[in-house]
Write a structure and sequence with these properties.
Layout: H1 10-41, H2 51-57, E1 59-65, E2 72-73, E3 79-92, H3 110-121, H4 125-144, E4 149-151, H5 161-170, E5 175-184, H6 192-195, E6 198-200, E7 206-208, H7 211-215, H8 217-220, E8 225-231, E9 243-246, E10 253-256, H9 260-277, E11 281-288, E12 294-300, H10 317-320, H11 330-339, E13 348-350, E14 353-358, E15 364-366, E16 377-380, E17 389-391, H12 392-397, H13 401-410, H14 414-423, H15 447-453, H16 463-474, E18 478-480, E19 485-489, E20 496-499, E21 504-507, H17 511-526, E22 543-553, E23 558-572, E24 579-587, H18 596-608, E25 615-619, E26 625-627, E27 632-634, H19 643-649, E28 656-660, E29 666-670, E30 676-678, E31 682-687, H20 702-712, E32 715-719, E33 724-727, E34 740-745
Parallel strand pairs: 2-10, 28-31, 32-34
Antiparallel strand pairs: 1-8, 2-3, 3-4, 3-5, 6-7, 8-9, 10-19, 11-12, 11-24, 13-17, 14-15, 14-16, 18-21, 19-20, 22-23, 23-24, 25-26, 27-30, 29-31, 33-34
Helix pairs in contact: 3-4, 3-5, 9-18, 11-14, 11-17
Length: 746
């Protein structure tokens, strides 16, 4: 069967095509008309929107992404300096500022506003009064000048988010806030001259002004990022346009060698020293003998890094203050004689007074028979005391200047003494990375100056130079170079861009000489007539040498008749020294002063290295405390284990356990697996229990509180320094995550 062919209706098809063409023509005409109308009038035909207004104001906008300045941290990561969001208070004073409900939005009561702001800004009555006066003056001056708004001065800048919230709750009319980034120092008084501080440049970017902040300004400074996009006339981003983003690169972090708790203990000890002795200066450095790592260093008077009020001294005394160290210098003279094989401790000399002349080479010699013009000077023992005929060992223990005069006349020459001083690098620059220094000066201008060098007068050193030299004596005879920066890390990757290493210098004396000197220095402490007997400790045996130096007074162009430098250089424990400490102050009180402040530093320093020996509760017949040996453990892995397992695992560990929560499984531990823990430390175990109660923190260190707060979600704030003496959340109370915990230290 033949298929039928389909016949197309050409008339109908042409008719349909014609209709479509008419419709398309109308649409095209409307589009063209709209374009022409818009081009001519600037108004979109359908929407009525003024397109030209947008077009004429269109462009691009760039926003800055501010990079954070790098952290400054202690050896274990505690934050010393950081960037924080801060707020500056501004005040509107124009009375035309009325809101929609006819209420004033300007400062109505200047006095009340200033008073209430000051109460939020500071709890210290003196600072509060200064802030009140400053703010009140700013407001009244702006009102009198007919200004629209004003800033409220330095006291109202860099406020915290908490302070901002408290001010907002006061509902004071006419106040507003400008957000900015501020440099914050959580502890305030913390190696202030060493750390230094920042300021703002003209673009409100932070830069280092002094100390480490200035030294490492390049490393700490980040690189700002930016966001760019196209905008309309009202600066709104145009839709469907590309956005260009360059992320900010935060500054690198600088990690110091300093131990947080030891530094706080040192700060407190020096503050107490200043007050107790009405001292002009007080300073201290603690060094790890084995590595050269500086565990703590501070100089007073100091200042709060946050407020920077009353900066009377920006000098970092330990490194920038050369001084005449006094009898501490005798250590190097005795070591030189021993190392030369010339020292006989049982040999004797006449104490009291020594007559000094000079030999044919112009060098100083002791000759008590000299008279008249032959005499270039007289050496006397301290306070003019005459001990008669004594041995050279006793001369060191009693710190007799006349012994030095005899030693460099009859046993070693002044030339040999100076050669050894130079071998000990006493007058050489330190070149410590990150540290500003002013070096001491060797004075060889006159024969009597050379003689005076032997007992620490006429020539000067700074304290770091002194510690570097002494490291050979309290160690194995080899100099250990001190260092203050542990590492610098990339803020993004965490990788170290700089890592410190222990640097040892040449051997200056033999190990046998070092041991002989250490034994003699221990007698300075243990002998009841020793000049360091007041530094003797019941719980730690130390070795030491004291030094009392005269202070040069530029006003009288000579030595002060009343002010002296009182200092001690000491190492502990005596049988195997781990730490080296110099502690000193300048005051009129150079004879009868407390050594308790120094002892606190020793204990905290040893504990930071896990070398402290704790006292037990046992007593002998003479009521003398017996000490237990220090015990150190390596922490096992305890996370995800039951408490029963943990208790079995820690059986035999003489450590202080702090179990947090009422759970049965440990979910977090401190110290971490593999880290060291001693019987003098707290160990924290967070369980999976929901109910957490507040422990009694009395006696805890600041670090212990910080660890506990981090584990439990508390916001801890601290007052003063030292160990815990008070807490705002009572022991036994339930802990709510995010709650504020105020801790008082003493």
């Amino acid at each position: 069967m033949k298929a039928k062919r389909k016949v197309l209706n050409f008339k109908k098809s042409v008719k349909t095509t014609g209709r479509i063409g008419i419709v398309m023509g109308i649409i095209v005409s409307l589009v063209v008309a709209n374009v022409l109308f818009t081009m001519i009038t600037g108004v979109h035909l359908r929407s009525g929107e003024n397109v030209l207004a947008h077009k004429s104001g269109s462009g691009s906008s760039t926003e800055t992404i501010v990079a954070n300045r790098g952290y400054i941290r202690d050896y274990k990561g505690e934050i010393i300096a950081q960037d924080v969001e801060s707020y500056d208070v501004i005040a509107y004073v124009d009375k035309s500022r009325i809101n929609a409900t006819k209420k004033p939005v300007y400062v109505v009561d200047a006095d009340d506003t200033a008073r209430k702001l000051a109460e939020v800004i500071s709890a210290d009555p003196e600072t509060q009064e200064k802030a009140y006066q400053d703010i009140l003056n700013k407001i009244t001056e702006a009102q009198a000048a007919g200004q629209y708004q004003t800033n409220l001065g330095s006291y109202s800048r860099n406020l915290t988010a908490d302070q901002k919230k408290r001010i907002e709750e006061l509902e004071l009319p006419g106040l507003d806030f400008e957000k900015s980034v501020a440099r914050a120092y959580p502890t305030g008084h913390f190696a202030s001259q060493l750390v230094g501080y920042t300021n703002y440049d003209d673009d409100r970017n932070l830069y280092g002004v002094s100390g480490l902040e200035a030294y490492f300004n390049k490393e700490l400074t980040g690189k700002n990022g930016q966001v760019s996009y196209q905008t309309d006339s009202e600066n709104n981003r145009l839709p469907d346009t590309q956005k260009y983003v360059r992320l900010a690169e935060n500054g690198n972090d600088v990690w110091l060698t300093i131990d947080y708790d030891t530094q706080l203990a040192t700060e407190k000890a020096l503050a107490d020293t200043m007050e107790s002795n009405k001292a002009k200066y007080a300073w201290c450095i603690v060094m790890d003998i084995k590595t050269g790592r500086i565990i703590a260093q501070a100089g007073y008077p100091t200042f709060d890094l946050n407020t920077r009020e009353n900066i009377t001294n920006s000098l970092n005394v330990p490194s920038e203050f050369p001084f005449e160290v006094g009898s501490v210098m005798k250590t190097f003279v005795y070591a030189a004689a021993m190392n030369e094989g010339k020292y006989v401790g049982s040999d004797t000399f006449k104490s009291g007074t020594a007559i000094i002349g000079q030999n044919e080479n112009g060098l100083p010699v002791r000759n008590d028979s000299l008279t008249g013009a032959q005499v270039i000077g007289t050496v006397s023992d301290a306070l003019g005391k005459d001990n008669g005929i004594v041995t050279f060992d006793q001369g060191f223990i009693y710190s007799l200047n006349t012994g030095i005069a005899s030693l460099i006349t009859n046993y070693i020459s002044p030339t040999t003494m100076i050669e050894y001083m130079k071998k000990f690098k006493l007058f050489e620059p330190l070149n410590i990375y990150g540290l500003n220094e002013v070096d001491g000066t060797l004075n060889e201008n006159h024969p009597f100056d050379i003689m005076s060098l032997g007992f620490g007068q006429a020539s000067t050193v700074n304290t770091y130079q002194l510690l570097r030299a002494t490291s050979a004596i309290v160690g194995d005879g080899t100099i250990v170079e001190p260092y203050i920066v542990e590492k610098i890390t990339d803020s993004t990757t965490g990788e170290a861009t700089y890592q410190a290493e222990t640097k040892k210098g040449e051997r200056v004396i033999s190990e046998a000489t070092a041991k002989q000197m250490q034994h003699l220095m221990q007698q300075v402490v243990e002998d009841e007539r020793g000049t360091a007997s007041q530094y003797k400790m019941s719980d730690v045996k130390i070795i030491a040498k004291t030094g009392t130096g005269q202070m040069y007074d530029p006003e009288i162009k000579g030595y002060s008749p009343s002010y002296y430098t009182s200092g001690v250089i000491a190492a502990a424990p005596a049988d195997d020294p781990q730490i080296l400490i110099y502690y000193g102050f300048q005051s009129e009180n150079f004879r009868f002063y407390s050594t308790d402040f120094f002892k606190d530093i020793v204990r905290e320093s040893l504990q930071s290295l896990n070398k402290y020996t704790e006292s037990s509760n046992q007593t002998t017949e003479n009521n003398v405390q017996v000490t237990d040996n220090y015990v150190e453990y390596t922490m096992p892995s305890l996370v995800n284990h039951s408490l029963d397992y943990v208790n079995r695992k820690l059986d035999g560990f003489k450590i202080k356990k702090q179990v947090i929560g009422d759970g049965t499984t440990v979910i977090e531990q401190f110290p971490l697996e593999g880290e060291k823990v001693s019987n003098a430390q707290n160990t924290f175990l967070l369980t999976d229990g929901a109910n957490i109660t507040m422990p009694d923190m009395n006696g805890w260190s600041r670090r212990d509180v910080s660890v506990f707060a981090n584990m439990t979600g508390l916001n801890a704030t601290f007052t003063n320094s030292g160990n815990v003496s008070g807490q705002s959340i009572a022991p036994g109370s339930a802990i709510v995550k995010g709650a504020n915990l105020e801790v008082e230290l003493k």
